[in-house]
Amino acid sequence: MSHLVDHTLVVELAVRNPFTGKVFPRNGTVFAVVDTGYEGFLLIPGDVFEELFSELESEKRELILADGRKLISRGVYGEVLLGRKVLEGFVETIEGLDEFVTGIDLLKSFRIEVDYCLKSVRLKGCR
Q1: Distance of CA 111 to CAs 5, 43, 91, 102, 122, Å?
Q2: In sequence order, what are the residues at sequence separation of 6 or more whose Cβ sits closer than 8 angstroms to the Cβ of residue 93?
Q3: 85-118 pLDDT, tens per residue?
Q4: Residue 12 forms beta bridges with which residues?
Q5: Whole-number Cα distances in Å, 95 to 49, 72, 112
Q6: Structural domain boundaries of the chain?
Q7: Are 12 and 121 spatial neighbours (Cβ–Cβ below 8 Å)?
Q8: For the domain 2-125, what is the CATH superfamily, name and number?
Q9: How much is the pLDDT for 83?
Q10: What's the chain's average pLDDT?
Q11: pTM of the model
């Protein structure tokens, strides 16, 4: 499910470690901000990353921000539960992050229709 929250596009999702079966949140979903400038799959807060993926060896990656600054992320491959779809991709975190952020790698499987006049959002799978 997707929404506009204060004119910000968000999607409802849950994150799962495919190796341990741990899911966050345990019940329900969280809002993740849609960021079309982020080319990755999913950014999550550090405490959630530790809760779900602490047993796995993480990989470091460099992220380049729009202003040219560079950040180092760490991540692992995980799953996103989005409605009835299960999507696999690189789930990462950066220091100080306190929200969930979806990127192009996750969104490329969907058609997104946003109508700010009607305050409506439709998210539909490509297939």
Answers
A1: 19, 21, 21, 14, 8
A2: 43, 44, 45, 46, 48, 49, 73, 74, 75
A3: 999 999 999 999 999 999 999 999 888 888 888 8
A4: 31
A5: 11, 8, 29
A6: 2-125
A7: no
A8: Acid Proteases (2.40.70.10)
A9: 86
A10: 92
A11: 0.90
